[in-house]
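Hi,

I'm pasting everything inline rather than attaching a file, because the server keeps stripping attachments. The sequence lines come first, and each chain or strand is labelled.
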Amino acid sequence: MDIENLDEKLSTVKTNPDTQSHLIPDEDSCIRCEEKSCIYVCPASVYKWNTEEKKLIVSYENCLECGACRIACDKQMLVWKYPNASFGITYKQG
Amino acid sequence: MERFMSQENKVDVIVVGAGPSGAAAGITLARAGKKVVIVERGSFAGSKNMFGGAIYEFPTIDLYPNFKEEAPIERVNTQHRYLINDDNSSVSVAYKREDQSTSYTVIRSKWDSWCIDMAIQVGAYFSPKTIVRELIIKEGKVVGIKTDNEEFYCDIVILADGVNSILAKQIGLRKNLNDTEIAIGVKEVIQLPKNVIEERFNLSENTGCITEIAGSPMKGITALGFMYTNKTSVTIGLGVNLDELKKRKITPNELLNKLKKHPAVAPFIKGGELIEYSAHLIPEGGYNAIPKLYADGVMVVGDAAMLVNNIHWEGTNIAMLSGQYAAQTAIEALEIRDFSSNMLSLYERKLKQSSFYKDIKSYKNAVKIVHSNSSSFLKYYPEKINEFFEMFTQSGFIPRACLYRRYIKNFLKDRKISKLLYDILNIIKIFFDAIK
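And the predicted assembly:
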């Protein structure tokens, strides 16, 4: 079966999410940001824009720890850290 | 880790990161009897790593002379296939030679772990689940590492902490990365029976095929697709420059879904089961993006030093070599107790003599040229190549002479002569860079 759905794909990755996010965008900068590049570069669609709340929703538990958002953030207003030790993804293939 | 350290919590060398470059540095130092600790943020070596991908005979065999017999190798690559895609067609070229090969497919979680095991066997200390948050600097010199709750000291730190290398940035060896010099690789590992893989890729037993894919569905985008064969799985993925995703407002997963559906690609993975989806950044900046590789008490190796040959998709080879050279330099530095940047510059001098480094240098303009002319090299010409072969395969009511004339006419009509000349000039430039 060919899988296109991202959630199904992400379910193949072994993860142990921390209780706190390791990705912290600056909310004021996000409101002013027109590009919202993080949404497009992320391979796991961690970032979604909530138009009603004018807020970036960060599903950090899906993060593949690649760092694309860190580099793509036009405003450089994202605090990006590695998840704490023993948290995050574990690739079995890689 | 404390037990391995001396009373002052100090060792000779701390290597940050247990990928190919870190393991190479670790094993080289341990073999020379140096006290070396390799720290890794993942729960085991390779657990956070991903690549296409292939490892290469050289310098692997220098570091691990027994790797062909004992390492977890998937397949020996004896075939290299290039697909140039248009939307509904594809031109492919395949090179095959069974009696010699210099690359092997591996699964990183197994391969990286095996390399670290080899380093441990000769006396390196391995500390997984350890995140280095910053380097300790005293009087301008790197003298150790700081984890979440502890400090460890050493004479030299080797930074093998990968493409994101936050530590190289901390000490100013790396600047903020530009989205044109970084690509994201996404891939799926798709399980298929061994004999099915061998039939589909035209392989004899245990041999493998590397496939590079240009053009559709990444037409006009600075991106290339790839397939690698493992024993009982096929890896399919692509690397795409971050600025292209931003510009086109498309996600890497969407591109990968399109690639899997392309008529020239889909039959290879049909009926397989997805066993893992993964993503990792690739340093694509080439020669111009390589930072200064050393400072007082510290050297940078592998992806952390942006050492990737993006034209030939090589990274693990120069990663291993840079780790080995940094370790050899550290061994000399430890002999004379000189850890200054002047002493450690020996590492860069050694690396510059290597064929891998020279290759990256000869392609220094190639990627930039292709990237800034992607509508030519990754769209227009792939289309024209496909149209060219289409003329020979279609038998119909139009005489071939008319088809040929139409092809030549369109070639000149669809593109300004000045643009064609400009492309030719660029190709000549890439060619002369490569041979000079």
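Chain A touches chain B at residues 1-4, 6, 8-10, 12-13, 35, 37, 39-45, 64-68, 70-72, 76, 82, 84-86, 88-94 (CB under 8 Å).

If the labels don't parse on your end, tell me and I'll reformat.
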